[in-house]
Design a protein that fits this description.
alpha/beta; two-stranded parallel sheet; Rossmann fold
Length: 297
C-alpha cells in the first residue's frame, strides 16, 4: 500500500486531504508539533524514519502581512522546509507534492497566468513561496507543484468568507476592495484535484512539474463579498448587512502589496485530469451549506 505523509493537517487544505488521499493509500498526517517546518534541520530525520512513498506538503506560513516582519519564520517554513523535504524525498525515492500560490506573480497580467510565465513576487510571502518551489524542483526529480489562489474552506483557519460572515452579522455596511481580481477556490476542490493528479502521476498518466488549479470564473473581492451575503441569506445565516460598497486597493492599504490580477490558467490541469474545475459560485454555495450544517460560525 502507498504510504503518504501529509503535513499541515490542521489547515484548510490539509484537513480535506486527510479524507481525499485515503483513496490512494495510507495517510500519515502530522501537525506542527510532530513535524515542525520552522526547524528544517529536524525534517529529514523524521521523514527518513517514516519512509513514505509520497510526501504531500500542505503546510505553509500564510500570514501574508506578518511575513514582512516575521521574515525568518516565513522563509524557514515556506522556503527552507520544502527544500529539506525534497532532499530527503530524493534520497528515499519518494514523490513530493507541494502547494504554492498566485503570489509568485506580480499581478500585472491581463490574461490568465500560465505555469511557464515569468515569476516576480511582490513581497516576502510570495518570494518565500517561490523559493520553496525552486527548492522542490532542484532537489527532487519526482515532484508535483500545484499553484492555487484565494483559498477558503469550512475547516481550518480563518478566511475571507468567514471574516465577511462575522462582520456581516454585526454591521450594516462594509467596504470591500474591488480592483483585485482572482478565482475564489474551495479547499475541498483543491484536495480533490491534488488527489486525482497524484493518482494519475503514480500510474504514469501525468508528468512531473508545475500545475495551476483554481475554481473556474473570476471575481473581485467585492464580487465575492456580495455573493457570500446573497448565498448566506438564502441559507439562513444571521446577518445585519445591508450594503457592500466597492473601494480601491489604495483606500485599503496593507503591509504587503497584493497582485492586482491573480487569475491562473487551468488549461494544463484540465487536459491532465479531463475535468474542468467547478465554477467558484457553485463551490461557494456548497461550502456555505456545509459550514451552516457544521454550525461553525
Amino acid at each position: 500500500m502507498t504510504k503518504i505523509l501529509l503535513t499541515g493537517i490542521t489547515g484548510q487544505v490539509g484537513q480535506e486531504l486527510q479524507q481525499t488521499l485515503t483513496s490512494i493509500g495510507e495517510v500519515i498526517g502530522v501537525n506542527r508539533h510532530e513535524l515542525d517546518l520552522g526547524q528544517p534541520d529536524q525534517i529529514q530525520h523524521r521523514i527518513a524514519e517514516i519512509k513514505p512513498h509520497v510526501i504531500v506538503n500542505a503546510a505553509a506560513y500564510t500570514a501574508v502581512d506578518k511575513s514582512e516582519t516575521e521574515t525568518e519564520l516565513a522563509m524557514a517554513i515556506n522556503a527552507e522546509a520544502p527544500k529539506a523535504i525534497a532532499q530527503v524525498a530524493q534520497d528515499i525515492g519518494a514523490t513530493v507534492v507541494h502547494i504554492s500560490t498566485d503570489y509568485v506573480f506580480n499581478g500585472q497580467n491581463h490574461t490568465p497566468y500560465l505555469e511557464t510565465d515569468q515569476t516576480d513576487p511582490l513581497g516576502v510571502y510570495g518570494n518565500s513561496k517561490l523559493l520553496g518551489e525552486e527548492g522542490v524542483r532542484k532537489n527532487c526529480d519526482r515532484h508535483i507543484i500545484l499553484r492555487t489562489a484565494w483559498v477558503y474552506g469550512s475547516r481550518g483557519h480563518g478566511n475571507f468568507i468567514k471574516t465577511m460572515l462575522r462582520l456581516g452579522a454585526d454591521r450594516e455596511e462594509l467596504k470591500v476592495v474591488a480592483d483585485q481580481i482572482g478565482s475564489p477556490t474551495w479547499s475541498y476542490d483543491i484536495a480533490v484535484a491534488i488527489t486525482q493528479l497524484l493518482e494519475k502521476y503514480l500510474n504514469n498518466l501525468a508528468t512531473d512539474g508545475t500545475y495551476n488549479f483554481t475554481s473556474s470564473g473570476v471575481a473581485s473581492w467585492y464580487d465575492l463579498a456580495v455573493a457570500i451575503f446573497a448565498e448566506a441569506k438564502q441559507l439562513g445565516f444571521p446577518l445585519k448587512i445591508k450594503r457592500v460598497l466597492p473601494i480601491t486597493t489604495a483606500e485599503y492599504p496593507t503591509p504587503t502589496q497584493r497582485p492586482a490580477y491573480s487569475v491562473l490558467s487551468k488549461v494544463k490541469i484540465t487536459e491532465t485530469l479531463g475535468v474542468y474545475p467547478p465554477h467558484w459560485r457553485e463551490s461557494l454555495r456548497k461550502m456555505l451549506s456545509e459550514w451552516r450544517s457544521l454550525k461553525d460560525y
